[in-house]
């Protein structure tokens, strides 16, 4: 068992492939690793490892997508003029800020979650933002983040040893104990092949708007906060 290291393992997590011995260890592993236990149906599988089971899984996945898309197309909100006007307005405003904002159909999780708004009086976006700390398996959702706020200020409540919340600070101890110069903020580049994932490195001293300019955003930005000294599989564009 990879949780207690005492008993013989009986179960394996479909999501992260960790071995567990009991229901208690399964629950503990999900809590510590922030793992939902659901198999990632879109995980990359190389041709050499591709089997009939992967083919069947892909076929069922496409069937599920077809059903979801059909149900979404029938949803009354899809045909609502106000919904269409709002999405068009957000995309148009983003385009004027040199941001390629793309929205998903009704039914997709990111479409339901997104709370991004644009204040016409202040001429600024208030973004729905997701922060991911992969070294601690932690994720946080922020709502109403003004686009003129520097990334360093956005991260302060999470990784600043003085200003961060005590509970969050304890969970992200690996980050709070590291020097600020070691912290790297990355954002995934959209529209690339699954086996060629690359990330843009963002400038923590600049505003959220400046960092998003010239980039493709699907619904809302997701920022990955990593430490340069720790090994990770995120390849920055140009490396």
UniProtKB/TrEMBL annotation:
One GO BP annotation of this record: snoRNA localization
Pfam families membership: BCD1, zf-HIT
Superkingdom of origin organism: Eukaryota
Keyword Nucleus tagged: no
SUPFAM superfamilies listed in its UniProt record: HIT/MYND zinc finger-like
A GO MF label: zinc ion binding
HIT-type domain sequence ranges: 1-35
UniProt GO cellular component terms: nucleus; pre-snoRNP complex
Key words of the record: Isopeptide bond, Metal-binding, Phosphoprotein, Ribosome biogenesis, Ubl conjugation, Zinc, Zinc-finger
Function (record text): Required for box C/D snoRNAs accumulation involved in snoRNA processing, snoRNA transport to the nucleolus and ribosome biogenesis.
Subunit structure: Interacts with FBL, SNU13, NOP58, NUFIP1, RUVBL1, RUVBL2 and TAF9. Interacts (via HIT-type zinc finger) with the RUVBL1/RUVBL2 complex in the presence of ADP.
Family assignment from sequence similarity: Belongs to the BCD1 family.
Protein name: Box C/D snoRNA protein 1
Source species of the chain: Ramphastos sulfuratus
Origin organism lineage: Eukaryota, Metazoa, Chordata, Craniata, Vertebrata
């Amino acid at each position: 068992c990879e949780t207690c290291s005492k008993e013989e393992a009986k179960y394996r997590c479909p999501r992260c492939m960790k071995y567990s011995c009991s229901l208690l260890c399964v629950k503990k592993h999900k809590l510590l690793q922030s793992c939902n236990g659901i198999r990632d149906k879109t995980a990359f599988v190389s041709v050499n490892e591709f089997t009939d089971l992967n083919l069947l899984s892909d076929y069922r996945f496409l069937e599920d997508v077809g059903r979801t898309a059909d149900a979404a197309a029938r949803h009354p909100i899809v045909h609502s003029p106000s919904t269409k006007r709002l999405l068009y307005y957000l995309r148009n405003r983003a385009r004027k800020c040199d941001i390629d904002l793309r929205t998903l159909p009704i039914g997709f999780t990111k479409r339901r979650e997104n709370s991004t708004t644009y204040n016409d009086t202040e001429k600024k976006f208030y973004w729905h933002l997701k922060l991911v700390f992969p070294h601690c398996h932690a994720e946080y959702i922020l709502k109403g983040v003004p686009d003129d706020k520097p990334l360093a200020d956005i991260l302060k409540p999470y990784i600043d040893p003085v200003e961060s919340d005590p509970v969050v600070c304890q969970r992200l101890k690996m980050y709070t104990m590291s020097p600020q110069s070691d912290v790297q903020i990355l954002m995934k580049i959209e529209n690339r092949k699954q086996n060629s994932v690359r990330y843009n490195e963002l400038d923590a001293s600049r505003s959220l708007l400046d960092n998003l300019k010239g980039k493709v955003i699907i619904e809302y930005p997701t920022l990955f906060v990593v430490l340069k000294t720790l090994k990770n599989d995120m390849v920055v564009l140009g490396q």
